[in-house]
Write a structure and sequence with these properties.
Jelly Rolls; five-stranded antiparallel sheet; about 140 residues; homodimer; mainly beta
Amino acid sequence: MDKMIAGIEMTPLKHIRGDAGDIFHIMRSDAAGFKGFGEVYISTVKPGNRKGWKRHTKMTLNLVVPFGKIRFVLYEQQTGIFQEVVLSPEDYHRLTVPPGIWMAFQNEGTEESFLINFASIPHDPTEAETLQLDNTVIPYAWS
Amino acid sequence: MDKMIAGIEMTPLKHIRGDAGDIFHIMRSDAAGFKGFGEVYISTVKPGNRKGWKRHTKMTLNLVVPFGKIRFVLYEQQTGIFQEVVLSPEDYHRLTVPPGIWMAFQNEGTEESFLINFASIPHDPTEAETLQLDNTVIPYAWS
């Protein structure tokens, strides 16, 4: 990837290991990237599977992957820029995606992977557009 | 358990299964049980391990277990009431714990289990008390 899409942010987060178990930070109300709270939910993706494409008109997404490994593909239709990000517990970051960006994601591991989306507004099907994974609008070849 | 601790709530949440992966609801800003957002984080507990005890003076906890199986033990010191709750993806609920209740938890499964705490205030070590798992204050026999 040579170019970056404006507004996409990667924020390093603490993953604190302990004898009995770990702590993974996700979001605080006083974090620099906090844009309000609307809904938080989990989306899982099975090995060999993908979900997408979706483009929100209002929602800002904040994505973490505490279990498994997921490749996110982001596409800004106006500029034609693609950006790819891989998240996992081993490289624990929060990926912030502003409204207006197409996104799809693929399991890159061998187990069912979990993403948590801390979203700025509650789920509202009227504010999101969807396209099938294979379509004639987004020139992306899955591998 | 004959008695219940006042203020402990169990809210059924949607777990929507799909071919490519699942969706687990956690919290919405317009949910009946929403008491404000301060921080959201994950705490994991390894097989055969426990974490606790902790009692918050200000934080309301909202706990879900999307992976694994965890037994929560809640103790109201004033009344001497214990209450136990087991959460897992197979019995997907949000457990709400108000301030003032001692809590500890134990992995009940064979894999590392994950809880997500959607908390009403950000982490603040000065508003929580802790006790070791074995102590002389809380008369609980772990099994």
